[in-house]
Design brief:
Rossmann fold, binds phosphoric acid mono(formamide)ester, 12 helices, alpha/beta, 5-stranded parallel β-sheet, binds norvaline, globular
Length: about 300
Amino acid sequence: MEKVKHFLKLVDLSIDELSYLFDRAKIIKANYKSYKKTWTLEDRTLVMIFEKASTRTRLSFEAGMNQMGGNAVYLNTRDSQLGRGEPVEDAAQVISRMSDVVMIRTFEQDIIERFAKNSRVPVINGLTNEYHPCQILADIFTFIEKRGPIQGKKVAWIGDSNNVCMTWLQAAELLDFELHVSTPKGYEIEADVIDSNDNVFQYDEPMKAAKDADILTTDVWTSMGFESENKERLKDFANWQVDKKMINEAKKDALFMHCLPAHRGEEVSGEVIDGAQSVVWEEAENRLHIQKALLEYLLLGKQ
Ligand code: CP
Ligand code: NVA
């Protein structure tokens, strides 16, 4: 099989490719806003496979394909043969003969790795237990739009060391900014991961991680697939809410980010997420534009 370019982790792209995507997304977004067509994906079909719930990911990929002149097909494991035990490898063979690109939201990273190995077309990670690379593309694109290059900046992650956090970790190393992480005891990033990444710093105290940050960001305390731990997590994370006091520790012009959906009164106070420093709606919108650039790049290369 010919070598296909997948996007399963953020580090599947080089700095050069990421910079290209940020530049291209800016053009695609401006074109779209001024009713200029970017129909580079005319006749192409994206298949989206969901094993977990989604609002933004589904909508941004589906609308994005339409805006590029193509189509998107939605499958979920509940009503496709994937939910009845058809091997991932077989599904990949078939689905990739009927489509041009595939986006998958699933549990273990291993599932998309196995799918990708058997796919004739590019596979995009739309969130796994381990990573959420499309989200971090959108977040960094949003930062660049608002503040310019992220290199040398300081990002503070407050909360669970989950899929979104682990993707920030990869981004910090790749794009050379600092990531200051604070998680409750028992939820820390594994020591070997920290040790192998010079751009990441871990703190017991969330206020210390937040100090002088350019971006203050968090996510739900309980990710999809971990619902049985919810009660315990509510107790364990109680001191890790991003509130007004915490955002005041960050730089004066710091941006607050959250991949959404958010729980006001848990990981973030209403005052912060609905406040002047919050860019959560722009982040959500930018999923659309950066993913259009990503889809185009995986299918056609640089334009
Ligand atoms: N941020 C994000 O991926 O949102 P959805 O779960 O709604 O897709
Ligand atoms: N960490 C969250 C992100 C949701 C977009 C989850 O995996 O549920």
